[in-house]
Amino acid sequence: MAGSQPPQAEAERPAVQVSSRTVFSGERTLTAPEPDLGPGLVPDTRLKMDGLAFLTSLPVASMAAAFLDPQYRGVLDKMAYGNEGKSRERARVALPQMAEDQITRFVAGIDRCLIPSGHLFLWIDKFHLCTGIGPWLEGTSLETVDLLTWDKQRMGMGYRTRRQAEYLAVLQKSPKRAKGVWSVHNIPDVWSEKVPRSGHAHRKPVGLQAELIAAVTSKGDIVIDPAAGSFSVMDACRRTGRRFLGCDING
């Protein structure tokens, strides 16, 4: 499926023929400023630092896009499958867990850093998809504008049905608009891509993230990730000619 392939080079993408009366465009008119980064904030490296401190150190309204993949404390609190700390789940349980109020602070910090009409791609699981993420957005100018389903092509845990998907909420900072901001219009909202089992316990699909980065940023833009985990977003930035700036508490 197309989801397992590297994104097309921007020059190779077919031109999008649209009327000036539509909200769609194959070109970006939104530009991000060149941020004045403090000492130690080196793009395209694996920074080891606290994510909230990282966000605080970034200039206000300076980034076009961000990713956030929280390690949800709520999942471990509410769903005891009986295999926590055993076999492959050792790595999952060992990861630093985020309480709801901590996730809210991460979202607020990203909102502060995004330029107007910038995007946050927020990874959520089925539990939070059903219960809602509204409380995390209170006090921000972020609004949910889309949702993607990642078919992982392998089954995971579950009391009743076994989980085979994760979800990516697409949030946009006001003013909400698509024309001149989102430039790629052939990304399916169900994306099939398998990631390696080895390494980090919560790897994310580089191919999908690369397509989204190409859609909402321009060459040379910086994409941030304050809880980078396996640093898959950095790999996606390399594929698309963008710069990555992010950190993980474990480096």
List the keywords.
251 residues; globular; alpha/beta; 8 strands; 20% strand; single chain; 8 helices
Structure commentary:
This protein has 251 residues and is α/β, with parallel strands linked by helices. Helix content is 25%, strand content 20%. It has 8 helices and 8 strands, in the order βαβαααβααβββαβαβ. An 8-stranded mixed β-sheet has the order 1-8-7-2-3-5-4-6. α7 crosses α8. The longest helix has 14 residues. The protein is globular.
Radius of gyration: 18 Å
Helix/strand order, N-terminal first = EHEHHHEHHEEEHEHE
Structural class per helix/strand content?
A: alpha/beta
* Weakly predicted, low-confidence segments: 9-19
Main sheet strand line-up: 1-8-7-2-3-5-4-6
Helix percent band: 10-25%
Multimer state: single chain
**Contiguous helical run count:** 8
Could you outline the blueprint of secondary structure elements for this entry?
Blueprint: E1 47-48, H1 51-56, E2 63-68, H2 73-78, H3 89-94, H4 100-113, E3 114-124, H5 126-131, H6 134-137, E4 142-151, E5 165-173, E6 190-192, H7 206-216, E7 222-225, H8 232-240, E8 243-248
Helix pairs in contact: 7-8
